[in-house]
Backbone:
């Protein structure tokens, strides 16, 4: 033993130590006395001396506290707390070993006997059971077990430990139980098992059986070892005649078992019944807990054979497959997939004559949900390999075969169709027709047809879907043919079943046919071209089969067949009119000859005046003869001119040349000093003595030439728009959104559906926004929204956006259409709406029946000089609520629409009337408000959050949100302005009826919103231009849900504005075309836009300075090249001019850089920076422009002015409608190149109406920057035409304006 002594000086005499400790000589303890200097022998003797005084048989029984607190007599009442401290802190001891026990071990003090321990426990309070050696505890536990009468300590329960034991002198063993409970956690009863294991008293299997079967024991199953329960389960299985406990049924668990002395396992098993077994059977779940082996295949067969109501979901799929194969052999079949229901009904020898009917019934519902044959479904579950096609054909061809086509897998059906096509010598199954399926008997099918296969898929086909055969081929994954492959097969087939040919292929064939016939467009094909022209690309076949195929499908036999075909095949209407060569619009749809176009007649006169004098033009037949000789005569000219009288001819010439200055025609200026030519002067030159009559500029309604619309058709049309609104409400009631970034004060986020610019939406936090822009992402699904918040917020608030609500406006419009439908049915529609809907004719008006005003009665004193505007005012004043409640005014850009609205509003206001003026956009409303505000008449601006929606500083002052202003107006008549929804939803608007409604920019409103607006007044003047930006289109998702088969014509019809429908329904309404452009100073710019978009009907203002100065000065003031074309295709490096795509929008760096240069050039010419605007079709390019200008601010003297220019003068085309500027720079952006000869992509520019908006904004100069090689080779015919005309501006000499 290692000595306790560590110092040099030793105390080896006990008496000496006791002397020192007891201070018998009354001296103090020597300062050098340390317990570490006491020898081991003295320590040992001292401990025995202590034990003796404490009446203990061994020092090992000394409690620690006795050393600390006991007053020892042999030490004169002193304690040994110093000795205890030394033992505790001054010596190294084993962890977990009691201090005294550790010292005794080191001093070789013998262990205490059992008898001594028992005697100690009887007479003392045991300080800790941890000090009691395990052998002693084991013997104590055995004695306790014996005294309790138990065969093993495992039987002892918690209460037994509290019992007072005789062998312990009446003491309990609660301390022992507590000691072990503190060491072990676990379920109830586990402590005694852990105690037994720790003390080497593990129960035997017999002990556990006795424990389980004892009537006096509360069984804790959790404490029984896993191997014991597993053995019990296996013994139970053997007794019941099973080879595996997994073969038990629930009833088996209730059977008394010999191994358990007649006790069952039900109480044991019931503990698991309520547990979450995730679909596992109770017996299997229990067996899994105790690692019972899985059933073998033979054991499964035994269970199926003898267990009633066997549950087929239990059997593993691999064994199910073996069962099916065994049954297949018994049935004499080659493959399980050949089995039939009747086979399963037959007894199975390998299942003790039990049938497999229950297997079939068990899986029948699952097969139904999977839309499969039940047996094939079972085979799939069992992992049975697929049959090859030959095996399936054997099944199908079998005698009395009842094989369902549901059974046959797709690959086999696909192979069968390919063999059928091969037998018929067709190159592809897609060329099969109905007879090939249902009539022809195939050799490879032993004379059977494919009618069952046809019927199987035809029954699943939705109503309206065409060509069941193509649907079958699509479902079966038969490779679709390319258009070229289709065309090749059609060319080499004896007959073509056109119902099988995809629409896209039919469309391609028409385009190729038109090209081969030398026609510019398929819509130029008539019946002759379909029926009689053999086509080389179709191996000399005609298109008669296609023609009569569609003719047979027509429901309305009075329609033109070729137009029906074009509609069904989504052949777009011709972008360029086939007769006139001009843009094809609804306005030009009535043209049937080249010279029906006014612009073409102007072109003719322009070319004539380049070659001949003006006087000869005034002589009709001389002009025709000269034209023939000069080679500028075109077929159809004489047809137009010959029937005209001399006066009519001169009138027609005046219509063409009235905007040409007199000196350009070789004439002197008039006495008044003006170079504009009057009709009276032209009459005099032509030798016509009569005074010219006043021109009528109003196209009056032809009440005799039109018919009323049928009420049912009106109801049907209104229902279409209501249905579409309801779909939008349902789809977009709550739109999930993801916040992206705050940029330039706008909130940018991503949504999964498109929203309309101008719409007001609300987020999940209740914040309101206006949609500024919505563009589609190309890299992934979704749309990018640019939202303008009505109230600025912190970025973290925007980041909390999760959803957008966007159905309030549509809900209002849908409800309104519902009410309107009821009114139409009841016959209670207002006269105004009755006229608009075509249910009522207007009363016929004539020029002399209009209200005439003297010039002095006009508030705008220059307005009567414009004959068209004056007549528009007179028409407006002639309206009445009952017979003539509507006037339709077509106002191209810059023609004074706002001035006209101002005059009409003032005329009605000063007659004591209430006027309501509505426009689609707040910009348009502000333009009118700005005019009326100057007239100092009471105007009331409606709408919530006007301070956010209006750029006019005084708009909030004259708005409904100003109570003082509202009170000042009181009940007096006034002019109210707003957007339709802004007016309707205004919480502060006053309730009043309106005598007149004026709708501005009506071509931007969709039909429901316009009808909604028309319900607010008794009379209406509707003003717009359908050749500018149209209503925001109905979302494609909505249209497809409304009609999955919607064709192109129907789409275009639904996208039209009500204004466009009214203005193009000729003869039904009184209409006016405003034909004088006041915005643009240079007539050449007006003439270009007029010829390009308005068929030459638009003319410059003849009261401008252009007509007051002579030719020489005119050329300096108004250069003919006022439209500057900057062609970036002249940049040699394609990469330097190429577009860049960004989040489905585009920018062009080279065009942005050129714009900076052009702005600097304009400044050098003396122009002011704020008199210049840059517009572009794309939002990304507008932002790139701002970025580039900021990077080049060193080139601009006034940095503050530049920043104001960047903020206020860079726009997208859509956001610039309704605005104008002195100098406009347009960036077209698109620049891309494909393979040589292939068309380019120009996307957004395909809408010529947006191009019109862009071109018509400038007053002085227009600079057009773009890649004209890309633009003139566009895949869109309109874009090609427009930009070809723009590119040729430099080369065209223009006389006629």
Residues:
């Amino acid at each position: 033993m290692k000595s306790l002594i560590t110092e040099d000086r030793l105390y080896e005499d006990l008496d000496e130590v006791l002397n020192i400790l007891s201070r018998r000589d009354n001296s103090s303890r020597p300062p050098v006395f340390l317990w570490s200097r006491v020898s081991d022998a003295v320590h040992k003797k001292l401990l025995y001396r202590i034990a003796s005084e404490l009446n203990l048989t061994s020092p090992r029984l000394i409690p620690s506290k006795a050393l600390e607190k006991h007053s020892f007599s042999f030490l004169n009442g002193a304690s040994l707390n110093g000795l205890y401290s030394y033992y505790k802190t001054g010596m190294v001891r084993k962890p977990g070993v009691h201090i005294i026990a550790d010292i005794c071990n080191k001093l070789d003090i013998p262990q205490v006997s059992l008898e001594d321990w028992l005697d100690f426990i009887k007479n003392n309070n045991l300080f800790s059971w941890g000090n009691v050696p395990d052998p002693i505890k084991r013997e104590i536990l055995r004695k306790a077990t014996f005294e309790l009468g138990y065969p093993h300590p495992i039987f002892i329960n918690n209460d037994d430990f509290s019992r007072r034991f005789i062998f312990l002198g009446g003491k309990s063993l609660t301390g022992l139980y507590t000691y072990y409970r503190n060491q072990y956690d676990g379920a109830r009863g586990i402590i005694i098992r852990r105690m037994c294991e720790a003390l080497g008293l593990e129960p035997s299997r017999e002990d556990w059986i006795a424990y389980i079967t004892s009537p006096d024991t509360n069984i804790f199953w959790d404490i029984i070892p896993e191997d014991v329960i597993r053995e019990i389960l296996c013994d139970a299985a053997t007794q019941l005649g099973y080879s595996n406990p997994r073969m038990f049924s629930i009833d088996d668990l209730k059977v008394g078992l010999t191994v358990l002395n007649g006790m069952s396992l039900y109480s044991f098993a019931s503990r698991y019944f309520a547990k979450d077994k995730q679909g596992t059977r109770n017996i299997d779940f229990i067996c899994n807990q105790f690692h019972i082996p899985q059933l073998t295949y033979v054991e499964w067969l035994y269970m199926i054979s003898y267990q009633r109501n066997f549950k087929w979901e239990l059997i593993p799929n691999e064994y199910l497959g073996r069962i099916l194969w065994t049954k297949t052999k018994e049935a004499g079949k080659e493959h399980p997939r050949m089995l039939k229901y009747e086979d399963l009904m037959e007894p199975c020898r390998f299942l003790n004559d039990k049938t497999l009917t229950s297997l079939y019934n068990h899986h029948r519902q699952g097969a139904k949900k999977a839309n499969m044959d039940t047996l094939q479904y079972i085979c799939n579950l069992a992992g049975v390999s697929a049959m090859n096609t030959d095996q399936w054909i054997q099944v199908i061809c079998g005698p009395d075969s009842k094989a369902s086509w549901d059974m046959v897998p797709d690959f086999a059906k696909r192979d069968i169709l390919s063999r059928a096509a091969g037998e018929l010598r067709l190159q592809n199954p897609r060329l099969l027709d109905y007879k090939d399926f249902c009539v022809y008997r195939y050799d490879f099918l032993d004379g059977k047809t494919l009618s069952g296969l046809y019927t199987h898929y035809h029954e699943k086909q939705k109503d309206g879907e065409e060509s069941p055969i193509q649907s079958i081929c699509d479902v079966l994954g038969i490779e679709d043919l390319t258009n070229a492959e289709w065309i090749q097969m059609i060319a080499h087939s004896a007959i073509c079943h056109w119902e099988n040919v995809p629409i896209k292929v039919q469309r391609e064939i028409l385009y190729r046919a038109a090209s081969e016939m030398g026609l510019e467009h398929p819509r130029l094909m008539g019946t002759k071209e379909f029926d009689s022209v053999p086509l080389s690309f179709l191996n000399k076949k005609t298109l008669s089969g296609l023609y009569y195929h569609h003719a047979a499908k027509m429901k309305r036999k009075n329609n033109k067949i070729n137009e029906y075909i074009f509609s069904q095949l989504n052949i777009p209407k011709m972008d360029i009119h086939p007769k006139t060569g001009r843009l094809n619009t609804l306005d030009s749809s009535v043209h049937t000859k080249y010279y029906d176009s006014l612009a073409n007649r102007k072109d003719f006169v322009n070319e004539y005046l380049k070659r001949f004098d003006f006087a000869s033009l005034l002589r009709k037949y001389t002009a025709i003869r000269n034209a023939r000789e000069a080679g500028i005569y075109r077929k159809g000219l004489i047809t137009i001119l010959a029937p005209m009288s001399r006066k009519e001819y001169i009138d027609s010439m005046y219509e063409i040349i009235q905007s040409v200055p007199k000196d350009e025609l070789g004439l002197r200026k008039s006495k008044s000093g003006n170079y504009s030519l009057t009709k009276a002067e032209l009459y005099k030159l032509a030798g016509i003595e009569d005074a010219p009559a006043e021109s009528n500029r109003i196209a009056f309604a032809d009440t005799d030439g039109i018919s009323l619309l049928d009420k049912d058709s009106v109801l049907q049309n209104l229902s279409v728009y209501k249905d579409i609104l309801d779909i939008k409400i349902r789809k977009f009631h709550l739109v999930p959104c993801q916040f992206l970034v705050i940029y330039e004060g706008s909130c940018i986020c991503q949504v999964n559906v498109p929203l309309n610019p101008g719409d007001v939406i609300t987020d999940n936090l209740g914040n309101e926004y206006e949609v500024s822009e919505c563009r589609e992402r190309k890299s992934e699904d979704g749309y990018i929204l640019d939202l303008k918040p009505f109230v600025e917020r912190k970025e973290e608030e925007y980041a909390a956006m999760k959803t957008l609500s966007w159905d309030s406006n549509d809900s209002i419009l849908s409800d309104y259409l519902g009410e309107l439908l009821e009114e139409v049915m009841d016959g209670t529609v207002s006269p105004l709406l009755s006229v608009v809907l075509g249910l009522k004719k207007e009363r016929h008006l004539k020029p002399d029946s209009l209200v005439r005003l003297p010039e002095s009665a006009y508030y705008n004193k220059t307005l009567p000089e414009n004959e068209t505007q004056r007549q528009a005012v007179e028409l407006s004043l002639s309206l009445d609520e009952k017979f003539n409640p509507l006037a339709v005014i077509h106002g191209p850009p810059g023609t004074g629409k706002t001035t006209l609205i101002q005059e009409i509003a003032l005329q009605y206001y000063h007659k004591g009337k209430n006027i309501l003026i509505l426009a689609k956009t707040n910009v348009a409303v502000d333009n009118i408000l700005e005019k009326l505000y100057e007239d100092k008449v009471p105007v009331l601006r409606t709408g919530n959050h006007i301070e956010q929606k209006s750029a006019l500083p005084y708009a909030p002052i004259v708005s409904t949100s100003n109570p003082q202003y509202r009170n000042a107006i009181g009940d007096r008549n006034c002019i109210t302005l707003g957007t339709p929804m802004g007016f309707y939803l205004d919480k502060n608007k006053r309730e009043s009826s309106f005598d007149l409604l004026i709708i501005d920019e009506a071509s931007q409103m969709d039909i429901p919103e316009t009808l909604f607006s028309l319900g607010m007044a008794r009379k209406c003047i509707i003003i717009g231009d359908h050749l500018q930006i149209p209503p925001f289109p109905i979302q494609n998702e909505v249209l497809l849900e409304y009609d999955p088969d919607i064709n192109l014509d129907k789409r275009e019809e639904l996208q039209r504005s009500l204004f466009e429908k009214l203005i193009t329904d000729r003869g039904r309404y009184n209409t006016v075309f405003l034909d004088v452009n006041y915005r643009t100073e240079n007539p050449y710019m007006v003439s270009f836009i007029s010829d390009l978009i308005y068929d030459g009907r638009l003319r410059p203002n003849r009261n401008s300075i252009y007509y007051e100065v002579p030719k020489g000065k005119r050329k300096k003031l108004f250069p003919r090249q006022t439209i500057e074309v900057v062609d970036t295709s002249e940049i040699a490096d394609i990469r330097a001019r190429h577009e860049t795509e960004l989040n489905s929008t585009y920018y062009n760096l080279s065009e942005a850089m050129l714009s900076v240069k052009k702005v600097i050039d304009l400044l050098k010419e003396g122009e002011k920076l704020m008199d210049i605007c840059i517009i572009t079709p794309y939002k990304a390019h507008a932002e790139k422009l701002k970025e580039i200008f900021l990077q080049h601010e060193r080139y601009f003297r006034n940095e503050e002015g530049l920043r104001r220019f960047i903020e206020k003068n860079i726009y997208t085309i859509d956001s610039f409608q309704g605005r104008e500027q002195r100098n406009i720079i347009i960036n077209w952006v698109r620049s891309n190149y494909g393979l040589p000869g292939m068309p380019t992509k120009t996307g957004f520019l395909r809408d010529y109406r947006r191009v019109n908006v862009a071109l018509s904004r400038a007053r002085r100069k227009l600079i057009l920057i773009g890649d004209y090689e890309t633009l003139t080779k566009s895949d869109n015919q309109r874009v090609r035409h427009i930009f070809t005309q723009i590119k040729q501006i430099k080369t065209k000499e223009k006389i006629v304006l």
